[in-house]
Amino acid sequence: METDEPLICLPGQRLSILDNKHVSGSGTYGRQGYIYSMLAGIVKVVEKDETEIIEVHCSNEQTLVPAPGDIVTAKVILINQRFCKCIIKCIGDVVLNRTYRGILRKEDVRANEKDKVDMYKSFRPGDIILARVMPITEVHTFHLTTAENELGVAIALSSNGVPMVPISWTEMQCPETLVKEFRKVAKVVPENINSLTQ
User: Fold this and answer.
1) In 3D, which of 96, 27, 36 has the Cα closest to residue 57?
2) Domain span at 177
3) Is residue 196, in this structure, part of any structural domain at all?
4) Cα atoms in the Cβ-side hemisphere of radius 13 Å centred on 110
5) Residue 20 CB neighbour total at 10 angstroms
6) Does pLDDT of 10 surpass 60?
7) How confident is the model at residue 30 (pLDDT cuts 50, 70, 90)?
C-alpha cells in the first residue's frame, strides 16, 4: 500500500486486503477479507513487527458510521407490507452529525412467528425505534433488525401527538384518550435499574 501521499477516504470505502500482514486498526473494520473505513479521514499505515495496521484518522470531529452489531436509534419515515424505511440518528449514546438510511424488513421484526408479522401493527411513521445493525449487504443502506426483546418501538406518539405508554409486548396506549395501538414494543431497561430495586 502506497503511503507517500496522504490518502483521503470516505466511510465504507475499501482500503486494503485483510490477511495476516494487513490488520484492521482504529477507524476501520474488516469484512469478507477486506478492510473498510468507518470514518471520513486520512488513511495511516502503522508497521508493527511483520504486519501493517490500517487506521483512519480525522482531522476534525469524527464521523461515526453504523457497524454490524451496533444498537442504533432510528426514526421510521415510510412503511409498507414488506419493510419500513428509517433514518438512523444515534449509534448507542452518540448523536450522529449526519443521518444514515436504514431498512427494516418484515422477516427481521421478530425472532419467532416471522410469517405472522404485520408491518402496520408493528411500526408507524414517526415512531422512534431501537434496532441492531445487521451485516452490510448494500453500500448506501443499513439493514436493521428488532428481533430481540430490548429492540422495537421506544417512543410513539398517538394521533393526538401525546407520547404513548407501553402496556404489553404488542400494544401501546394513549394516556389521555386511552386508545390502544399495536406496536412491536421495545423492552427499555432504565439505566438506574439497580437503584430502583434497592
Assistant:
1) 27
2) 71-182
3) no
4) 16
5) 7
6) yes
7) confident
The reply to whether 50 and 79 lie within a common domain is no
Cell of 74: 432510528
Where do the H-state alpha helices sit in the chain? 193-197
Cα 20 from Cα 50, distance rounded (Å): 9
Q: Do 88 and 66 meet the contact criterion of CB atoms below 8 Å apart?
A: yes
Other C-beta atoms lying within 10 Å of the C-beta of residue 189: 8
The reported pLDDT for the residue numbered 125 is: 95
Domain identity same for 46 and 78:
no
Are both 51 and 80 inside the same structural domain? Answer: no
Categorize the per-residue pLDDT at 159 as very low, low, confident or very high, splitting at 50, 70 and 90.
Answer: confident
Q: Stretch 163-178: mean pLDDT, rounded?
A: 93
Question: Residue 150 falls within a domain, yes or no?
Answer: yes
- Kindly report the average pLDDT of the chain as a whole number: 85
pTM score > 0.70 for this model? no
Q: Is residue 193 part of a domain?
A: no
CATH number for the domain that contains residue 144:
2.40.50.140
Q: Which three cell numbers stand for residue 194?
A: 439497580
User: Which of these, 96, 86, 93, lies nearest to 64 by C-alpha position?
Assistant: 96
